[in-house]
Amino acid sequence: MALDCETLVIGAGPAGLTAAMYLARYRRDVLVVHDGTARALRIPLTHNVPGFPEGVCGTDLLARMTEHATEYGARLHKALVTGLKRTANGFTAQLDDGGAITARGVVLATGIWLNEVDLPREVHEQAIKDDVLRYCPICDAYEHSGREIAVLGADLHGAAEAMFLRQYSDKVTLIPAWSDDLDADQHHELDDSDITVLRGRVTAIEPDADGITVHLAGRDSTASSHRFGILYPAFGVTPRTDLAVKLGLEVNEDGRLGALTHMKAEIPGFYAAGDIVEGLDQISVAMGHGAVAATKLHNYLRDEDDHVMSDQRPVD
Ligand SMILES: Cc1cc2nc3c(=O)[nH]c(=O)nc-3n(C[C@H](O)[C@H](O)[C@H](O)COP(=O)(O)OP(=O)(O)OC[C@H]3O[C@@H](n4cnc5c(N)ncnc54)[C@H](O)[C@@H]3O)c2cc1C
């Protein structure tokens, strides 16, 4: 099936749905294509989306954002985009259902994958719902203030995360997942901040409704078990940049696109938004990116259609 649209938004998370709503209100024909894997769908209740002091569940937020975008005419199509290329008239996206989409311009809002602890899928997702396993202290450390907090991953990234969490609790423990990669000075810094560093290697992680138990094996075959209120694995993320890379864009040292504003010069009509761009990984940031990317795409199309004053060119 071939689908034509004026503007294509890839991704139906907070970034993509904001871009779609803005484009629709700029009276652009908008098609949002997504594969149903928005990270925002996994949020049981977020407390830091402005305007929701009582919190909002990720599925409810995206349902309302979808309603908002479709109210103004945006269409949604569920499929995985497997290819994206620039053509003489714009872009063609290939879909895993055999279809293709042509568009004059694209907003890419494909987000990131979390690098997760190795637990059976249903156990992992239940632990997130039970609030005993989380990946983003900026999102929810406030809700765990004063608890026994553990960070998994004794490298600089893990140590930095433990230091960040120290603001929320004086019971923060750093656990090596496989090995302790910190030097003596870094251990001293953690010690000075009263952060405990365990020794050993994780052999099992057992979440339940009230907390999470981490089992460790020591060098001398001793085993120990440690109980926490919440565990934050610090394993980083894998940005979903494959489509941008197929277009010829480079990723930065974080594996992300780094900016949504320089795209026009490199690939005219292509913009990016949300977690794929930079690393705060927040809904409010994704929404802001979506609004900016949509506006830049709209202005690019106005420029193409000669609907701008000549002394304002190039429009950005
Ligand atoms: C458990 C949890 C709790 C969180 N709590 C908070 C919180 O309290 N506050 C907060 O601000 N943030 C929170 N976050 C982070 C927040 O979910 C993300 O920052 C936000 O969703 C990023 O929006 P996005 O639109 O960039 O990406 P996403 O929401 O991940 O959406 C990406 C979209 O791209 C689509 N997609 C990707 N690749 C393709 C492809 N090839 N083809 C088709 N579609 C594709 C996906 O289907 C999806 O629709 C949390 C995340 C998790 C997992």
Write the topology of this structure:
Layout: E1 2-4, E2 7-10, H1 14-25, E3 30-34, H2 58-71, E4 75-78, E5 81-87, E6 90-95, E7 100-103, E8 105-108, E9 112-114, H3 121-129, H4 137-140, E10 149-152, H5 156-165, E11 172-175, H6 184-192, E12 196-197, E13 201-207, E14 212-217, E15 223-228, E16 230-233, E17 237-239, H7 242-246, H8 263-266, E18 270-272, H9 283-304
Parallel strand pairs: 1-7, 2-3, 2-8, 3-4, 8-18, 10-11, 10-16, 11-12
Antiparallel strand pairs: 5-6, 6-7, 9-17, 13-14, 14-15
Flavin-adenine dinucleotide binds at residues 10-16, 33-40, 42-43, 46, 48, 80-81, 109-111, 128, 136, 139-140, 240, 243, 274-275, 281-284, 286.
Task: Provide key terms for this protein.
binds flavin-adenine dinucleotide, FAD/NAD(P)-binding domain, alpha/beta, 2 domains, 4-stranded mixed β-sheet, elongated, 316 residues, 5-stranded parallel β-sheet
Describe the model.
This protein has 316 residues and is α/β, with parallel strands linked by helices. It has two domains: 2-114 and 237-312, FAD/NAD(P)-binding domain (3-Layer(bba) Sandwich), CATH 3.50.50.60; 121-233, FAD/NAD(P)-binding domain. Helices cover 28% and strands 25% of the residues. It contains nine helices and 18 strands. It has helices at residues 14-25, 58-71, 121-129, 137-140, 156-165, 184-192, 242-246, 263-266, 283-304; strands at 2-4, 7-10, 30-34, 75-78, 81-87, 90-95, 100-103, 105-108, 112-114, 149-152, 172-175, 196-197, 201-207, 212-217, 223-228, 230-233, 237-239, 270-272. The strands form five sheets. Strands 4-3-2-8-18 form a five-stranded parallel beta sheet, covered by helices on one side. Strands 1-7-6-5 form a four-stranded mixed beta sheet. α1 (14-25) packs parallel to α2 and α1 packs parallel to α9. The longest helix is centred in the last third of the chain and has 22 residues, at 283-304. The model has no long low-confidence stretch (mean pLDDT 94). Bound molecules: flavin-adenine dinucleotide. Flavin-adenine dinucleotide (FAD) binds at residues 10-16, 33-40, 42-43, 46, 48, 80-81, 109-111, 128, 136, 139-140, 240, 243, 274-275, 281-284, 286.
